[in-house]
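Q: Could you write out the predicted structure for this multi-component system? I'm mainly interested in how the pieces pack against one another.
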Amino acid sequence: MALSTSSNFAKPDDAFRAIVEAHRGLTDAQSADLDAALVLVLANHIGDLDVLREAIALAKRRTLDASQQQQQQQQ
Amino acid sequence: MAANTAQAKTQFGYRRHPDQDRSGANVAEHPVVVVGAGPVGLSLAIDLAQRGQRVVLLDDADRIGEGSRAICFSKRSLEFWDRLGVGDRMVEKGVVWSVGKIFHGASQLYQFNLLPEEGHKRPAFINLQQFYAEAYLVDRVEQLPEIDLRWRNKVIALESRNDGVALTIATPEGSYQVHASFVVACDGARSSLRQMVGAEFAGQVFEDQFLIADVKMTAAFPTERWFWFDPPFHAGRSALLHRQPDDIWRIDLQLNPDADPIAEKQPENVRPRIERMLGHDKFEFEWISLYKFQCRRMARFIHGRVIFAGDSAHQVSPFGARGANSGLEDAENLAWKLDRVLRRLSPETLLESYHIERSAAADENIRESTRSTDFMAPVTKQEARLRRAVLSLAEDTEFGKRMVNGGRLSVPSVYDTPLSSGDRDDWRGGPRPGTSMPDAPVTEPGGGSGYLTDAFIRQGTRFTLLEFGNGADVDVPEGVGSIRVGGAGGLVDAQGLAGQRYDAEPGAAYLLRPDGYVAARFRNVARPALDAALARAAGLN
C-alpha cells in the first residue's frame, strides 16, 4: 500500500479545523506534546511502516523546502 | 563490602607447561588456541573438545572475575549449555523467570511473559551470576583432557602467517611462543588481540551513566524483571530490579550524564538511593559498579586466521541481555565450522559464514539495544517529548504499552545465510531455514518423556534430519543423525506440539545443522534434495 495523497475527506476543511481547534488555548509546549501523541496514535492506526516512512519523507521534504524558501527570502 | 562468596573457589594456579621450554624451530604447534577464559571462550573450548579437537585455552588472570556482571542467560544459551553438559547445573543454581513488569512513576504500565507457552525444556531466562557460570564451565573443562587451560598466560604479540598464527605469551616465568592453525579471540571488550591485528572498533558512545549495585537481602519481591521509568524513588531517571541466586538482587540506576563517577560509587552515596527504592535499610552491598556503555562492532570478525567472538567483536548496552548471550551464540556458531575446517571436511571458506551470520546478529543486537537505550535516555527534547507521549498513551492503549521500550530481551537471530537452502514447498509456519530449532515435548517409544532438544543432543549435535514419519523409510546419508517423530519406533508427539511448532504433516523433514539451526526443510524429503542441502550447509558449494 502506498501513501495516499489524494483528498480522502469528504469535507477537508472540517478535518483541518478539528486539528486546529485541538491546539486552541495551548502553549507551544503543550501543542508540541499534543502533536507528538497525535502522530503516534495516527501512525499506529495506519499500521504500515512503508506508508509511515513515505509520510515522514513527504513531511520532511515540505519542511526543508519551507525553511529554504524562508532563507532565500531573508537574503 | 561483604566478601564475594564465589571467589574462594574460583582461584586457579599458574602451572608451567612443557611448551614453555620450546623455542625456534621447535615451537609447539596447536590446531586451536582460544584466548580468554570467560563464558564465551570456555564454552567454545568445550564445544570444540566435545567434537574431538585439542584446544589450548589461555587466560591472563588466575581467577574468575569479580562481581556478578552478566546475570541473564537466555533459553538459547541454556540449550547450548545442555549440549556442553552444564545446562542442568546452571538451571539448578539459577533463578528461573519469564515475566517482566514495566512501571511508570508509582503505577504498573504493563507486564510481559517471554515464554507464555508450555512444552519447552528450558525457561525463557535464568538469572545467574557470571562467576557461577564460569565456575561450572571450568569444572566441565577439567573433565575434558582435550582442553589445556593455562592461567596467567597473556598473549603479548601476534604474528599472522598464511597457514596460522604465531603467538608470544607472557607468564610469571617469562615468555614463550606457540604456533596455532587458528586463534579465537574471546578476550572481551578491551580485547588486546583486536589491537594486535589493528582492527577498528567504532560505534556509538552513550553519555548517560548507570550504577549497578548487587545487594544481599531477603525480600518478598517476585522473581520477575521490574523496570521503572521515572520512579518515585529515583525521579526523572530509570531503574531496574532483578533477582539472582543467594538472595542477591541486581539494582540498576540511571544517573545523570554529569554525575561524578568516583563519588557516585561510594557505598555511603549509593546506600540512600537504594534505601529510598526498597523502603528499608536491611541490605548489604555485594558489588557496586558504575558504567557508561557503547554499541559497536568490528567490521570483520575474521582477520586471517584470527577469529573474534563475544565482546571482543561486538559490544551492546546491557538492556536486553544481549552481551553474554550473543557471545555464546557466536561460540556455538563457530565451533562446528572450525571443527569441520580443521578436519578438512569443509573448505576454510565455511568460516566466512560465521562472519556473515554473527555480524548480522551483532547488527540486530546493536540496533535493539541502541533503541532501548535511546528510549531510556532520550537525547533531544523532541525525543523526550515522544517518549512522554508513549508512556502516557501506554496507560490506556495496547499499542502504547507495546511501544514502551524498557529493554527487548535477547532472542536468537534468524540467519539469512548462504548455508541455507530456501523453501521450495509451501509452509504456513514452523522455523524457516536459518532459524534455531524450536523445542517441543516428545515421548520415547518406551514411555519416557523428553524433548526434541534432548533428542538432538543424543544424535551427537551433528547434521541431523528431523523427520515426521509417514511410514516410509527415509534414506539418511551416512554421518547424518536421525530423529524420527511418529511412525513405528519413532518419538511420540503426544501433545501434538512438535507437529504444530514445525508445521509438519507426515513426510515432512527438517535438516538441522550441528548448532541446531534449520538448514533446509522439505514437505516430502528425497535424497537428491537432501544431499544438495547438506553440501550447501557444509559450505561445499
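A: Regarding packing and overall arrangement: The CA atoms of residues 202 and 296 of chain B lie 6 Å apart.
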